[in-house]
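Next up, a chain.

===
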Amino acid sequence: MPGVPTGKGCDGCRAQKKKCDEAKPSCSRCARLGLFCIGAGQQRYKFKEKTVFEFECRNGARAKSSHDFVPTVILPCPNSAMDILTSSFVDTISPSTDFRYNLVWMYGGFLEDVPARIGRNSALDAAVEAVVVAHADFCSFRPIQISFLLKYSRALESLRKMLDDPLKARSSETLCSAMMLLICQGLVGACEGLWTGHCEGAAQILKARGPRDAQDDFENKLLLSLRGPVLFEGIFNNRIEFQLSEWNELVLNHLDGQMPEDRLMRRLAQIPEYMHRARTRWPQSAIPDLQLLNEMRSSYEILSAEAQDARQRYALVQKRIDQKASPASLIVQAHAYLQRLYGLCLTVCLLFSSVLAAVEPSYEVILRLETANFAREIVLLCQDATRYRPLASSYVALFLYAAWLGTAEHSIKTSVESQLAEHRLTWSNGTDQVFPVPYLQFLSQRIRHQVLQRGQRLQEA
């Protein structure tokens, strides 16, 4: 009784015997009627007995003997748990998915290589299951479901077991499972405490593994996506601590050596090293390290020039964008990409200026006008980014955090707080999250005072 592929219409359209346009994540009929769209674009299989005689008769041929028939080729149906999981994940990352809901567009091309690795590592398999459920709930605008919590807990337990095995802990699949759990947290909008936890875990795995395999394209693609979260959190979270060579190992990647994002990540990776140099010098001397300040100012000026270049490219596309254009059009996707790139440039500039002001307070006054302009640009950019909600604008919170940290202008901070509150309401899916303002105050204190605080601890020791 073989499985025969049938239509890809959603459950609602099939029940009403209506034609479904199979759009994802919601077909046009369900979207119009405000219904949850379940199963749109997903391949189904109908199980029925098919005889060779029936096949021949349908094609106008007369059966003579069983020896005259050519066996029909029937597409195989999923026949194991791994096949079903692989099929579900392939459907989840399908290129046909609207980029506003598309995981590959948001989190990186390494996801396209994950299906080939399902079945090799139990932690990765469990994490993939959790991502599939989280993405389905996310696209249907459902709050966190029990089914997701169970799969997420199972994935955490599987990852812990993998980390207990030194050999498996160093595999790229185990590292990938940490990234997949980070994606889950992003989709459900839930994070316990101030840090994700999975960035710390990924950093520990990276530190234990040592140098990566430069010939492993999957690992290189994975690090392209993982380096950003680890770097941004590493600036504030002192439990993520690498040597300069280890930061460089994380950010240097031959797959995008000349891309703007790569240049930004290289500059961002300098911040932990600059902070380390500043706080180790402080107990011995109250005189600023002029060489350090010159290096930081030079890096900041390079970043500022990068931001201006990104702004020009973004402005060119902004003039051509049509508010009614389809999300599937290339101009819309180019606009979304350049918007994200420009926002990332501004974010790195503002973080750099905050660290520069923490090392030498006079720079807060020197850069005040420029950083205020950067923060205003982020506010305007994030207002425009609402058109790409939900997933393709999920970076908005990071950009707004940087805008709040990087300016002393009260009016800008108020605008940022308002946008963060709105973003939190639309993103949280009914879960409780850290309230933005106290969290921002904590991050500001973390950057501006950790040099002094850690210097005092070193002096006391």
